[in-house]
Design brief:
This protein has 16 helices and eleven strands. The strands form three sheets. Strands 4-5-7-9-10-11 form a six-stranded parallel β-sheet. α6 links the parallel β4 and β5. It has a single domain, classed as Divalent-metal-dependent TIM barrel enzymes (TIM Barrel, Alpha-Beta Barrel). The chain is 48% helix and 9% strand. By secondary structure, the chain is of the alpha/beta class. The chain is globular and about 65 Å long. Bound molecules: manganese (II) ion. Manganese (II) ion binds next to loops.
Amino acid sequence: MQLTKDQLLSANEPGLRRHESDYNHLSDKLSEAGVAVEPVVDALSKFQVAIPSWALGAGGTRFGRFSFHGEPGTLEQKLDDVGILHALTQTAGAVSLHIPWDTPTDYAAVREHAAELGLAFDAINSNTFQDQPGAVHSYRHGSLSATDEGARQQAIEHNLRVVEIGEKLGSKSLTVWLADGTNFPGQRNFQRNLVQTEDSLRQIYAGLPADWKLFIEYKPYEPNFYSTVIQDWGTSFLLANACGDRAFTLVDLGHHLPNTNIEQIVSTLMLKGKLGGFHFNDSKYGDDDLTVGSVKPYALFLIFNELVYGMRNNPQNPDLAWMIDASHNVKDPLEDLLQSLEAIQLAYARALLVDQDELATAQGDHDVVRCQEILQNAFRTDVRPLVERARLSRGGALHPLGAYRQLDVRRELVRERGKHTVATGL
Ligand SMILES: [Mn+2]
């Protein structure tokens, strides 16, 4: 299923007058405050976020999985779903695949299909947290950190195989996330685990094509509950440094202990030119996989404020790979992703409104109250008309979620695919 321009135009029609009036009102207000509105809309219209293939089906908990009707049963259908998101929002122009769940059989056909939908292939993900059917060695006691040499070599080779697959699709980066760790004190030797992991990552890095990047993701706990080998940004950062110039830290919002100051982490990494990728989601406690901006929108805005500062002031940091990483079990997965994409655009728009020069002056004057006011004025601005304008400028939907429901997309997907298809993933 694909949405046509005509379908979107007619869905937009009834709301255009309201939008025009809201946009003009906000635009006047911002212009009076000295904000150049057009560059903000332009930046929003260019911002693209990769959709993870595993978010298109309903995710599970460790107790069970309740699949959603009309889930994509093939890689082609997953691309169709991302195509629908992109047609509506014009901000989901890439997909992040996961191997072996998304291993293509016909590469040319997959590339062609993605191109038709206007989709690029962002970072590709390896999987050494599950044993695959027929695997010789088990990852039960670790993968890249394994003391069992056979398991470790198998995990290294898997990552190199994932790079080969990514190359055939046009990907330019590999994301490595390890479940490796321990559940009990004394179970394994911390130093030995780290040495093995560094050695494995360096072997993978050595096998990367010259124009590829390596993203190293961290996470404090889960699935292991006593220690995780790459537990925090510092460990990821030192491993990235050990690998080389094209290895970077990847920050996943959900991979922090409660109340961690993620904006400060982002800022430090960009200063050092080592922030490579970003996984959006939201959480209350840990890696909760909740919709972006659903629990802590102000924290998301503060993170974006540092990202915008870094994008303007840190040429030493490469362009970031923006990705969503979430997987739900109670919502329509596409509706959830539309909500996430909206929240990302809203946070970015608000961060773009922050007057960085004025903030620097207030900081220099030690005017703490003014500093807070500058941030909160931006956060409290209803920027929805700017985000709408950016979408309309690219031919997207005025209100993506409204259009999705009005066009009855899920019913059409169920009609095409049947009720009981199940997407590969967790
Ligand atoms: Mn992640």
